[in-house]
Write a structure and sequence with these properties.
Layout: H1 14-25, H2 30-37, H3 44-51, E1 65-73, E2 76-83, H4 89-101, E3 107-113, E4 115-122, H5 127-145, H6 147-155, E5 159-167, E6 175-183, H7 190-210, H8 216-220, E7 223-229, E8 236-245, H9 257-273, H10 275-295, H11 300-311, E9 321-326, E10 329-337, H12 351-359, H13 365-387, H14 392-407, H15 412-421, H16 429-441
Antiparallel strand pairs: 1-2, 3-8, 4-6, 4-7, 5-6, 8-10, 9-10
């Protein structure tokens, strides 16, 4: 099909956008109009609110919003909201929470909460001369120039923690950074950090232009390339862990406690040394993390990018979780770098996000960091528990069964038949189809 580019798409009404899409790309099929409209909220104000979250919106995209109960975290009981479309994620997290609830639950520690941003610039100047200029002039000016921007954040206990000059000329000619660390308290802080960094860029230009430390040729070589926060926040770190005596590590799969602990630790070690396994292993961790991140209105793309960069911080991609067995004690933990907020952005706008945060007891940003790390650890525990005992497919496919039956147009009575049929069998796509055809043929 040949399509024509469109001018002024963003200026069309919502209906105008839909009409154009259906006409240009969907052969005028009115069924697609109906699909989009059935997901509009009947409350016009609520629908308008959702449409203004992003650009060129024509409908809402629904995801299941589920609850994983029985999470004992630092002595408090939580029910975690999880927005996720993948079968077995909520079930696995819930099962892991129940497993650990009578063993002391999950313990968390905030290791640090610094966030980072950089002004990237090119400057053809001797590094020692620039370092002297930074130490005795620029650093102070950067703080002064951002005082108005940081005032409210400083009143809440946050602000700019430090500013450093980083020499990267060995990796790229004349490349330097102003590297700043921030405490954004309960906000994710992206807009705050970027506003500070953009002022850094302006102040850098102004101070260099009026300085007597540099020649005119050196001054003209300055280029501020960009001012932007980093989503890699290795110093915004939380630890979540579980531990118990091996004799208390009872599993219902039939294997001994000792064998379960040994195989579990082997599985984690494999993910620590084998990138192919580590990738899937960490994807499972992020199943748990992202589901709660989305439910609480935070940025799951930033969460993903940071976690995977951290997993590869020594040059090889490795597991985010770790396991030890010492003196009869089984210990399983995660160190997760994660930057989230509980104020600003969607947290004050999206009704379900408000619900999620209320459900979690209106946590601080650090409290939410702890909850997210626990969710990831629980999901990973559930997946590894299945892998080293019954296998992943038994539980996953049982959760996936309804998806298969819905695709086949099964009635409620037929769905109930299949739940009973697979009560003591492992679900497979082939077996579902075979039994479905047999049932329909009767």
């Amino acid at each position: 099909m040949d399509h024509k580019p469109v001018e002024g798409f963003s200026k069309l009404t919502k209906q105008g956008k839909i009409d154009w899409l259906v006409s240009e790309y969907l052969e005028g099929n009115e069924e697609y109009q109906n699909i989009l409209k059935q997901y509009w909220n009947e409350n016009a104000d609520l629908q308008k609110l959702h449409e203004e979250f992003s650009e060129n919106t024509i409908s809402n995209f629904y995801m299941p919003y589920g609850i994983a109960p029985n999470f004992l975290i630092d002595g408090k009981l939580f029910a975690l909201p999880m927005a996720v479309e993948e079968s077995s994620v909520v079930a696995a997290a819930s099962k892991a929470a129940k497993f650990w609830i009578d063993k002391g639950g999950f313990k968390t520690t905030i290791i640090n909460n610094e966030k980072l941003g950089h002004t990237h610039f090119i400057f053809n100047v001797e590094s020692h001369k620039l370092q002297h200029f930074f130490n005795f002039n620029l650093k102070k000016k950067l703080y002064e120039a951002t005082e108005a921007i940081t005032a409210n954040m400083r009143n809440r206990g946050g602000g700019i923690l430090d500013i450093k000059l980083v020499d990267k000329t060995s990796e790229m000619p004349n490349y330097y950074q102003l590297k700043a660390s921030f405490d954004t308290v309960d906000s994710m802080g992206a807009n705050f950090i970027n506003s500070c960094l953009e002022q850094f860029g302006k102040t850098l230009k102004q101070e260099v232009a009026t300085s007597e430390d540099f020649t005119q040729e050196e001054k003209s070589s300055l280029q501020v390339v960009m001012n932007i926060l980093s989503n890699f926040t290795p110093d915004c770190l939380v630890r979540a862990e579980v531990s118990c005596k091996i004799e208390d590590l009872k599993d219902d799969s039939g294997i001994s406690n000792e064998e379960f602990a040994r195989k579990f630790k082997q599985a984690v070690t494999i993910a620590e040394i084998e990138p192919f396994r580590a990738t899937t292993h960490n994807k499972g961790v992020m199943n748990g993390v992202d589901a709660v991140v989305i439910a609480t209105g935070n940025d799951f793309r930033a969460t993903e990018a940071c976690a995977h960069a951290y997993a590869a911080r020594d040059g090889q991609y490795r597991s985010l979780t770790h396991c030890t067995i010492d003196n009869g004690i089984f210990r399983f933990w995660i160190d997760l770098p994660i930057s989230v907020g509980v104020v600003g952005g969607l947290t004050n706008l999206h009704p379900l996000v408000k619900f999620s945060l209320a459900l979690l007891g209106k946590p601080s940003a650090q409290g939410l960091m702890s909850i997210l790390a626990v969710s990831g650890l629980a999901q990973n525990f559930g997946a590894l528990r299945s892998l080293v005992t019954t296998g992943i497919q038994k539980g996953h496919m049982k959760m996936h069964l309804l998806n298969i039956l819905n695709q086949m147009g099964a009635t409620e009575a037929e769905k109930q038949h299949f739940v009973t049929y697979f009560k003591d069998k492992t679900v497979s796509h082939h077996e579902v189809i075979h039994e479905f055809n047999r049932l329909r043929a009767q």
